[in-house]
């Protein structure tokens, strides 16, 4: 019996994400939680003739029932950006929302794989980790910051420039999930790029979220592409846990779950030995993180990106880890 709970299920990401999860034969129970509208979303999705049962839960009184005994909890709850805002500007509102959802998960689904989408991811993942530590149920292998949209974008943008099918373009994107903390490692693709192409692609991958925020003009940020990316990530976590399939995805994790080689590679790339969270290529397994790959060879150009990423990430992590 695989139970998946989506927290923020009535939102811009939550609805299409739930639709994609409803299509998976891996899911037996799709539990939809939000502070508004989930009865309607659940009734609607429940008519789709796939295996899973769908339940809707609305408001804090129903959070326990929604989340209880979940195998995986996906969190796209909270406010999105408007033009002119950074992801860090969302901390004020989203930190408390994520903390409260994490508290319910720590109490009622302590073994769940936690997939955190709510921004700022660089800080919300440490918030969830601290809540789980406080409840003595922390396993760093089970808590993930979802950075898959950066990988999806990188694949699409590079394939546009190189005239390739995106399915053949897999870019490793590591670091964090905001502007300069997003580090695409284009040098590992085995493609040649002009300096102009490198600058433009790197910038587009780092600031792809801003393109959508600007185009939506006050109506929010990426929702459909994020639902696609979030479903890909969550279903890969399930594939690995339920079916034992070996899948590798870049995801933002506590480095306590990473191999010594991977941790060392973060130190070398960033020049900072104090970073405690970083997105890395992670092999997923029955307990979440099975192994982590080191960053690998990087160019001088990327070395500068890593230094800038490390400096910004450090503050984001500290802010999340000290939030009560
Ligand atoms: N990790 C990533 O790559 C990405 C992250 N995001 C982030 O995802 C979050 C959600 O974005 P959207 O779906 O566009 O926003 P939205 O405003 O459309 O939906 C958010 C939903 O969360 C719900 N919510 C608010 N407080 C809640 C609580 N305490 N418990 C449960 N649900 C609650 C709202 O009622 C709403 O339905 C934002 O923080 C956004 O920045 C967005 C795109 C990509
Ligand atoms: O840009 C935003 O605020 C939403 C997000 O994280 C993304 O699209 O990558």
What does this structure look like?
- The chain has a domain at 3-145: NAD(P)-binding Rossmann-like Domain (Rossmann fold).
- It is an alpha/beta fold and 324 residues long.
- A 6-stranded parallel sheet has the order 3-2-1-4-5-6, sandwiched between helices. A 3-stranded antiparallel sheet has the order 9-10-11.
- Helix 1 (14-22) packs parallel to helix 9 and helix 4 packs parallel to helix 5 (121-134).
- The longest helix has 22 residues, at 300-321.
- The chain has helices spanning 14-22, 38-45, 63-67, 91-108, 121-134, 148-162, 195-206, 208-216, 224-243, 260-270, 300-321, and strands at 3-7, 29-34, 53-58, 72-75, 113-116, 143-145, 173-175, 182-184, 247-254, 277-285, 288-292.
- It binds 1,4-dihydronicotinamide adenine dinucleotide and oxaloacetate ion (OAA).
- 1,4-dihydronicotinamide adenine dinucleotide is lined by residues 7-8, 10-14, 33-36, 76-81, 90, 94, 97, 101, 117-119, 121, 146, 149, 177, 220-223, 226.
- This is Malate dehydrogenase.
